[in-house]
Amino acid sequence: MTVLLITGLGAVLLLYMGLKAIKRRYVSRGLLTWLGTVGLPGLLFALCASAMIGCFFGNPPYYLTLAIWPVFMLGLEPGYRLVGYAEG
Asked: Among 25, 52, 66, 86, which has the highest number of CB atoms less than 10 A from its own CB?
């Protein structure tokens, strides 16, 4: 249960800080910014989902995390793209 809280809240915090930094123009949009704003939170959300699956169905294989990671990245990508176009 602690793993779920740490990974879930860590992913939300990384996502929020990354989008806020892009919005305030502290960082420029690039590959490293994308990895920190979309890739890493997506991986943490996938780890959280794998831990939740492990709670209900036993020990999940490690490749399950890698299989659902792109699904979370697809959900986070539009926010990354929209925050760069927002005026403010």
From this structure: 52
